[in-house]
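User: Please predict the structure of the protein below. I'd like the answer in structure-token form so I can feed it into my own downstream comparison script.

Assistant: Understood. Taking the following sequence of 505 residues as input:
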Amino acid sequence: MTVVILKSGIFSIVNNELYYTFLQLSVLPVWQFSKYLFCLTLLILPFEQTFCDARPNIMLILLDDLGKEWVSAYGASDIETPNIDELAASGMRFENAWSMPQCTPSRLSILTGQYPFRHGWVNHWDTPRWGDAYYDWRLNPSLARIMRDAGYNTVAAGKWQVNDFRIEPDVMVKHGFDDYAMWTGYETGNPPSAERYWDPYIHTKEGSKTYEGVYGEDFFTQFILDFITKNRDSPWFAYYPMNLPHAPFVNSPIEPKAEGVLGKHKAMVRYADFLLGKIIDRLEEINELDNTIIIWTTDNGTHGALKGKLNGRIVRGGKQKITENGINAPFIVYGKELVPHGVVTDALVDFTDFLPTFVQLAGAKIPEGIAFDGESFADLILGKSNDSPRKYIVSMGGLNEAERSDKGVENAFVFRNRVIRNKRYKLYANSSPEYGLDKLIDLKNDPEEQKNIILSEDEHIVQIVGTFSNILKQMSPKDNDPIYTRRDPNPWDVEVSVKSQVWKQ
């Protein structure tokens, strides 16, 4: 059954009353009529009591361990990724978007809007594997909680790994997700939990269990699409941190005969591309695509055992490194009716920018009393600006250099090494105790980062070094350790191995 409805028009305010003049006739499925029926109250209710929610849906798709050398839209020649390429061609492709160099620092920077030196997760730390440290909902900001408080339906599916669901089974709700289906991460002492692909071990509101005969990414993709289908009466935020194409390298459902590390890696990347196509098609089918913004990116560079050809150069995977192959992420923003098409931008963006950007898109409020590092690039992706507000971006963290003291999990360095860049130049800063400037790279003329020009006497270079040095001085001289409430020890907690704080370099 269908109904005819006057769909679009012009708002006007007369004597503090909001009125709407209709301009367009549309034929709609009857299930959509309810959305517009609510908007019709604008004709008769006072302005301050009414509003028609046209805020965009937001989907963040985060792949795990994938550099630009495996995305053909960026010039990769050893693989074809047609759905990702189409997303880029129909949206906005970023050239200068920085992740952090490894899983945990990247993910916590997305969720908190803070750099690792502030939120404390400077090192990679698998909470269910090593215990103790965890993402504490009481002491840290949460992007999902902000979105839910703003009236968004919120869902997450995929990889989490920064809480232990054995201890906190409902922690995803506490962080702000209405529903969720997460691979648990490897839980020490629980062998089935190691599986994330075939026969995955997944945690939902019904608990954690193995799903035999299932491919994990299929389960997660369908879970998110089912949630969206059921909850499209209000705007939604979907966070899809894929496991793909992180090791272990396995066959995919559409390439069961892939062989070897490289062959299976390619199959996994192609399957991530296939799932993106499935998501786009489904959103189109349920009439949710027009008002949806999709951000597709990755948490860090590819596994170091893999090499791919990018624009004629052989590029080795840069996971855990702060060179460009480790942190300059493929980053694509698409919105069928919302984001300009076919744009390639050199705008600066880093992973702390997700939170303020989504807050602006959602008309939400930034929590008071919390320091955030990100800046919104919403105006850029909506076509209201030609650049982001960023003058520089930052990346840092990774490796497994944290230890457990009697006070909790602590990072190895007082001040961890990091990089700062503008659109052309990139500064490396040393870790403590050699804290200070290390090298300056001209990325325009030296994309492989081979020539250190920090000692150049050229007036412009001297000025650039001075600017970056001042930025570095504005950061805290001491990195935070993970911020969490201590709890009773568990058998799988790693042993105390250092004396609190004094062991740090």
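That's the full token string. Confidence is low (pLDDT under 50) at residues 1-26, 28-51.
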